[in-house]
Structures are given as structure tokens and as C-alpha cells.
Amino acid sequence: MDYGLKSSLKKIINVTGTVIHTNLGRSMLSKEAIQSVEFACANYVNLEYDVESGQRGHRDRLTEDLIKELTGCEASIVVNNNAAAVLLCLNTLAQGKEAIVSRGELVEIGGSFRIPDVIQSSGAILKEIGTTNRTYIKDYQNAINENTALLMKIHTSNYKIEGSTANPNIDEIVALGREKSIPVIEDLGSGALIDLSKYGLPSEPIVKNSIKVGVDVVTFSGDKLLGGPQAGIIVGKEKFINIIRNNPLMRCVRVGKMTISALDATLRMYINGKEDQIPSIAYLIRPVEDIRKVAEDVSSKLREILSGIAEVWDQEGTSQVGSGSLPVESIQSWHVALKPINISVEKLSELFRHAEIPVIGRINEGCLLMDMRTVYSGEIRYLIEISNGIERSVKYNDKRIYT
After folding, report:
1. d(CA 102, CA 140)
2. Cβ-contact 286, 49 below 8 angstroms
3. pTM of the predicted model, to two decimals?
4. At 188, is the secondary structure helix, strand, or coil?
5. Crossing angle of helices 257-271/61-71, nearest 10°?
6. What are phi and psi of 327, to 5 degrees?
7. Would you say residue 307 has pLDDT above 70?
8. Distance (Å, rounded) from C-alpha 19 to C-alpha 213?
9. Angle between the 31-42 and 257-271 helix axes, to the nearest 10 degrees?
10. In the predicted model, is pLDDT for residue 396 greater than 80?
């Protein structure tokens, strides 16, 4: 079979309302990061070569100074995703021993990967404490024994428990760890490097704050709220980072020059105060008035093109961050709604999905909704061309469409 040279990856127009969409590739890279990856791909680079000494170097060192500056950590490691970061840390520091975790933090992350399964796969022994909604510092104290390797706190980034709840702050857990000489690991997941509330978004735990209160090891994602390439980043005290780095599994989860170059460029944007130009951040902080104008423009054009096929209008709506970040928070947005007249909404959705450039929206109450938060001028042209194609398809293929 001749597969040709065309990539299996397709450009997608994301109008789902989920900004960081795991199924659609999560965060898009900035122009600076793309240029950095292109440079790394086209050249030999000092990936593991120390030019100064002429000796072998370590790829972690290439981003370490930037990560230190942004988080306040003593040392860092970059691996292929945050699940790998957690696995590596547990396997290094708790293999055959107990890791104490609150029951309310035993989350399932994307793709049905569950924290208890990750802990088991690492060789550590899960020691559950507290209840789903209430855990106290005394629960950690009472669970500590001679086989305790570490205390672990996991940010429940993909769900939230409300109502009658209790959960100790990370500084309380750190204080207990110091008292008992037991290391503390915190999995922050989303990887917020800055306070997003300054842009009008809900607050998320910031990596620097965890380092400041004395957490020994912190893990988080390089994409998600950080907005870089898919990666897992481990930061913390040098003595623990050095032990983790020497784990034989490190070679199994390390990243290549493309990830490092993209992460390097993304981190530099934070250093230079240009984080609002990182696509994921830019989408999340985009003014709703800007989105409304796009929705009005698109709905006006589609109303004319799809006349007789669907009723089209624009309306207020909400977006979500996605990828387990800010799970119950919504962001004000503006949608284009399409209500089909003579075909089913499932068929209309299929027609957009099967276009040369697939358009992925969501179905709600008999309408196909298109959130305009992630649509910019270049993609409006595609939406118009695709809609014209659908109009012709419905007009000239009648009975095959009306199912």
C-alpha cells in the first residue's frame, strides 16, 4: 500500500469551547517556540555536550537556569509528561515503601490513568488516609511508621469537592515532613508559573509558592497552563533531584531536543514578560468583546450560506480551560449556534467533521455550537469555505444527506 507523503495528522478547527483540548493536541506553541524547534531539528546542537569543558553534558542543564529563575528551585529534571514525572519520583524515593496520600486526592487523570495505579506501577505502596471529603494533618501523623518513605499531596486539578470539606495546607504537611525527616512530594499537574488571576482567570496553585514553603519535590506539566510542549517537569531540592536523575528509568522517560528547544523558548517568554503571547494563555485571556465580534461576523456569513439548511445565530456562552485545569470554572465566551432544518444535528456535525479541514464543535439541545474563543481571522476563511462545501453537498446529494 502506498501511503504517500501526506501526514496522518490533520489541521483541526477547534470550536469545542475547550481551549487546552487533550484530544486535539493540547497547547499550541508560540512562534518563538516553533522557530526554536525548527532550528534544533535542522542543526547539530549541544544536547548533551558541554562546549566549555569539551566533556559530555546533561540535557536537563539546558533549561535548568530558566526553571530555577521562574520557580526558585535548586535543581530540575524534564521528562516526557507529568505522569512519568510522578512515576519516576515515586520509584526513586518510595520503591517498596509507603507513600501517604489523602483519599480525596486519588484522582483519575486523562485516558483512565489513575493515581493509585501509577503509585502501584512505581513499586511504592499506597497508604490511603482520611476520607473522600475530609483529611486532617493528624491523619498524616497517625499513618507514619518505620516503612513510610514520603508524604504526597496531589492537586485535584480535574475535579473539585465542595461543601463539608477539610484538607491540610501544603505548609502543614511540609512542617510534619521536616519534623519526621520524611520528604514531601507535591503533584501540581497544571503547571501554573504565574498568578493567572491578574488576567481575570481563577487562581491556580503556583509552582514558586510550593518551593517557597519548602516542598522537597514538585511535579507539573510543561503544556497545560504553562503553554509549552508536552513534558513533565520535576523541581525541588538538589539532593532529591540528583537521586531521581540517577534512576535508570530516567533514560526511559527523558525528552529529546525538540521538546527541550520548545520548552526553552516558552520559559524565556515568561522570563521576558511575554507570557500573554503564548497561544494557550492568549486564548484564555482573550477579551469577550473580541470573541463576540467574531461570532457576529461568522454567524452573519453562515446564515446566508446555510439558508434552508440551518437556522444560524450568535449567542453568549462559556468556554473551559480543559486538560483537567480549573475543572469547575467557566470563562465567558460567545458562540455561533446552528439548528438544522431538514437534517439531523448529528448529520450536520458529521458534515463539518468530515470536511477537508475538520471543524469540531459540540452538540447541545438540538444545536451545533461553535465557540469562537479559539477562532482567529485566518480560520474564518476556512469556516466560510467549508460551509459553502456543505451547502453544495446538501443541495446536490439530497437523499444521502437526509439521514
Report:
1. 8
2. no
3. 0.92
4. strand
5. 30
6. -65, -35
7. yes
8. 31
9. 150
10. no
Contact indicator for 12, 24 with CB cutoff of 8 Å: yes
DSSP 211: H
Number of neighbours of residue 395 by Cβ within 10 angstroms: 11
Ranges for all domains in the chain classified under CATH 3.40.640.10: 28-275
Residue 83 has pLDDT above 70, yes or no: yes
218 — phi, psi (to 5°)?
-125, 135
- The grid cell for 30 is 508560540
DSSP state of 13: E
Task: Return the CATH fold of 28-275.
Answer: Aspartate Aminotransferase; domain 2 (3.40.640)
Q: Which CATH architecture has domain 282-401?
A: Alpha-Beta Complex (3.90)
Confidence at residue 401, expressed as pLDDT on a 0 to 100 scale: 47
Domain(s) labelled CATH 3.90.1150.180 in the chain stretch across 282-401
Gap between the Cα atoms of 73 and 403, Å rounded: 59
Give the pLDDT mean for 208-235.
Answer: 96
- Report residue 383 CA to chain centroid gap: 26
Expressed in angstroms, the distance from the first to the final Cα of the chain is 33
Other CB atoms within a 10 A radius of the CB of residue 58 amount to 14
Q: Rounded mean pLDDT of 285-305?
A: 96
Reduced DSSP (H G I as helix, E B as strand, rest coil) percent helix, strand, coil of the chain, to 5: 45, 20, 35
Give the start-end residues of each E strand in 146-296: 148-154, 184-189, 217-221, 232-236
| Rounded Cα–Cα distance for residues 203 and 197 (Å) | 5
Per-residue pLDDT at 178 exceeds 70 = yes
Please give the distance of CA 209 from its chain centroid, rounded to a whole number: 20
